[in-house]
Structures are given as C-alpha cells and as structure tokens.
Amino acid sequence: MTTRTRYFVIVSLLVLGVGLGTGLVAYYVGVQGMPFARHAGPEELQYVPKDATVVAFANVQEIMHSDLRQKLHRALPMQENGQAELQNLTGINLENDVFRIVACVYANSAANASGEGMVLARGNFDETKIEALMRDHGAQPEEYNGRRILVSDANSAQGQRHFALSFVEPGLAALGTADVVKKAIDLHQGGAGTAAGSVTANDELMGLVRSLETGNNAWAVGRFDALTSRAHLPENIAGQIPAITWFSVATHVNGGVRGTLRAETRDDDAANNLRDVVRGFLALGKLQAGSRPDIQAMMSSLQLGGSGKTVTLSFDVPSQVFDAIPHLAR
Amino acid sequence: MTPTASRQPPATFASAMRIFDLSLGQMLWSRRSVFLAVLLGGPVLLAIALRVVATLYTSGFQINGAQAAGASIFGMMIWLLYIRFIVPILGVFYGTALIADEVDDKTITYLFTRPIPRRAVLLGKYLAYLACTVLLVLPSVMLVFFLVVPTGGSTIAEAFPSLLTDFGMLAAGLASYGAVFALVGTRLKRPLIVGLVFAFGWEPAVLLFPGYLKRLTVAYYLQALVTHEMPQDSAVSMLLQVFREVPSVGVSLVALALIVGLALWGAGRAVERREYILEQ
After folding, report:
1. pTM for this prediction
2. Helix (H, G, I), strand (E, B), or coil: what is residue B150?
3. What's the CA gap between A161 and A115, in Å, rounded?
4. CB-CB under 8 Å, A214 with B242
5. What ipTM was assigned to the predicted interfaces of this complex?
6. Measured between alpha carbons, how far is A174 from A42 in angstroms, rounded to an integer?
7. Which candidate from A4, A16, A27 shows the least CB-CB separation from B142?
8. Does the pLDDT of residue B177 top 90, yes or no?
9. Using CB atoms within 10 A of its CB, is residue B32 exposed (0-12), middle (13-18) or buried (19+)?
C-alpha cells in the first residue's frame, strides 16, 4: 500500500471514528448534557410537576396576532364570547394580557377519578383586580408555602373538586386543580433543589419537547397509552388502536397552519402497521381531493415520515382553505 | 523450509490480500475516482446548502410548504441519492470493471501468470472495491448526517441509531451490487450496459408490480433493511409503496449473503475457466 493510499485510509477511518464517537456521546448523554446545549422548552416547565401525561405550550401573542386568527375573527365573530367571559370572570384579556401558556394534564390512576391539570399563563396581570373578581365568584383565599392561593369548589360527576389560582411569581399565573397548583408552588419555593421533581427531569418527555421547539408556536407532547387507558374504551375499539406510547403535535400558526404529528410506537412492527394505515388514509384523501385546488395543496403537503419506532406526518393547511370558512358559515 | 514447500502456491485468501493491497491504490487514484468524488461530493454539497437554508430562514427547509425535520430529509437523501442511485451505480461501474479493466489495459496476463489462483485475483479486487467504496460512501453519509439532521427540530441523539443501521445497510448494498456486477463483468460481453439496464431498468420496473419477480433483484432485499420511510416524491414512489412487500430483516440478510456468496463463486469460476484473448 502506498503512503498516499495509507493516508487516505487513515483520514477516512478518522472521519468515521470521530463521527461515530460524537454520535455515541450525543446518544448516551442525550445532547442536553453537552456544554453547547441550551435548556429545552419554555422556562415555565420547571413549575410543571413530574409525570405529566400531557404537556402543551402556546405562544398566545403570536397566535392571536396571526393572519389566520384575524381571518377567523372576521369570519366567526361569535367565537369572541368565550374570551369576553374569561375577562368578566378573571379580568384577564387573553388578547393583550397573556404572552404564552404552558398546560399540563395528569391522568389519575384511581378508578373513576377524573384527571388533574394546570395552566401556567405568563403575561401582564392585575393581581388585585383578578383576586377581587374571583372572590366575587366564591373563591376563598388561602396561604400555602408562603404563597397566596384562591381556591374555589366545583361539583362534578366525580364529587366536589377544588380549583385554585395563584401567582407563582410576578407575571406568572397558575390556574388548575388545587393539588397541582400547590405542587407548582412547592417547585417554585424549592428552587433548583427541586428540579428533579419537575417535568424537566423527565428525559423522555424533554427529548420530545426539544425536538418541537424550532419554528413552532404551539405544541403538545403526551403519553398516548396513559390517555387511552383512562378513556374506558370498549374492548373491540381499544384493540384496534395502534400501540402508540408517546405522541406529539407541533404547529406554526400564521397565514395557515403547518405542523407535524408524531407518534412513538411500542416497536418497529407497530410503527410499520401505523404507517400502512396512515398511507391508506392519505391515498384515500388524495383521491377525494378531486378538483379542489386548495384541498389538493393541503393533501400534497401531507408527508409521511419517520424511522424505526417513530411515525411522523407533516401537514400544511394553506390560508386558502380558511378563506372558504365565511362561505360555509353563511 | 524445504524446496518442495517453497514451490507450493500461496493460499487463496493470502493471495487475495496481496491483490487487494495492489488494487486498492489503483482504484483510489484512477480516473474513475474523479467520478466517485463527484458522486459522493454531491450529497455533501447539497447537505451544506440545506444547512445554510435552515440557518438563514427560521421556517427551515420545507417540503410542499410544510417544514421538514432534519431526520426526514436525511431519510429522503438516503433513499433517493444513496440507495436508488449511488450504491447501484458504484456497483455497476466498479464491479463490472474488476477484471475488465485489466483486460482493457492488457495487464491481466501479468496477474494470471503469477503463482496464485485466478479466483484470488477476483477476490482481492472485489475486497479492494469494497474497501474503496465503503471508505468513501460512509464518511460521505456521516457528513450529510451531521449537516442535515440537527435542523428542523431533529436531534443527533435521536437519529443516531438509524445512522448505524444505514451504515450496515449501505455496506451490505455495496457488497451485494459489487458481487452481482463482478459476475456480470466476468460472464457477459458489454457488462456496463447490462449492469446499467439491470440496476436502473430491471430493478425499478419489477419492484413496481406485484408478484415474485422482485425476488430476483438486490433492491428488494436491500430496501427491507432501510429504517427510513420511503419518500412520496412521485407517482412511481406511490406505486412502489402500494406494491411494496417487505421481507423480514433476517430473510433479507440471508438473501444478500447468498447473493454475495453465489455471485462471487460464479464470478470466480468464470475467471478460472475463461480464456482471455487480448487484442493486439
């Protein structure tokens, strides 16, 4: 072997070795441990207790000021009633006061018990006005771990439930079932020492969150199996549901809506089965699109992807599709 | 050492390694290497362009208007560039030329007059082809992976296991196509044309239709090893997906090993038995 050839072999093996080494380190450390990695997800996640079944995020300002929302606002003005009701009850103007929200849901393991959840809203809030309004509606103030919380009771099919609102820190409101809000306060008061108790310590979930951040203004991640097990579906229907463990939805809302649905399945075979099912629906959808150019554009944007246990479906609903809403509403 | 022992021809594998040593340099620094560099540099340049687009535009790289994850783009590049084009074409150009080049250069006589089995010449050249292509294709895939995957929300950590599978699959593809076209190169006249027709005519055509004919292709077994979703880039791809039967990984690996073994055995026999008449 000549020297030139030997150098080539060494350089080639070096490229492979460095690449494989870097990949292995990234794989085992999960990238977040690397010095150049940044913290994943919005900072409010540190107040979300661990073991959340679903975590969701929305950049409210971007969505409220998007062309799509303006279009829907013009087409369906009655949708604003809910927003007015929220303002009447809590004094919060969704359009101007809230910057972003992080929501979490917990599937209760007890039989016939409903789930718990919380919404963390970051924005400009008039705390005094909000407290006065809530007290007018029957909420009672309490002290918990050095924080003031407003608790109100509500009757549901599962019995009486306690809802609470607290300002975990200035400009951050936590609203949800009392137990979860109290855990959020504990996480805040405990500081960095309680990080292991927050969802940021859930590597599996945070790995998915990290993959959703770029270019999306709303996303949700959750355990599909935990949700379906709580849904009490009939056996024949439950048996037909693919063996999905994690799911995620990420969207960017502006003129239209584009995004990606992603499912992590139990094994490669389940992923292949799911891809076959989705592929069949896509083919059917493309046939049904017919001569509608707007629907055809949307259908052609659907891209099935993923590898191994991951199945992804990216989509893009163009703004033209939403142009048809005023005609349908009439 | 007795004089009788010193006159014994060396074993096939030892001879093959001598030929491998000689041929690797010849293959790497030949005119064909320019073609190889262009072929494998193309995906890297494309990956650099995609990375620049993803860095400059916050919406990232889009397919039909929807933002595409880096891992999906990498999967598409593996399918469209490497599996459907680069691996078969490397097999055709290098595999068919293993012996044909020596015949064309009229240097086959020098190899065949050495005290080594003729099949060792073929085996050595085949191993040199495998080393040459694997050492060029895998680093190219590695660079594409690191350039493309960390865009559009994908992470290296997440996609890394599929890269290892891709490496194994590409090495198996290069080995299989190389062996098949080595057989074509030793058995048939105009092997390059036959090889191109097989790789880009026969294989894509029979994969389109249901039935057993697809089992007579390398692509049928190779594509079963791909972990990425087949891209839906055209009507042909849609048809391929509709009629796609995927054998299990075990069956595919056994089939590819059989293809390599039988093709090399057949090529070795052809080299042993064929009389090469060099044009003066």
Report:
1. 0.60
2. coil
3. 11
4. no
5. 0.80
6. 15
7. A16
8. yes
9. middle
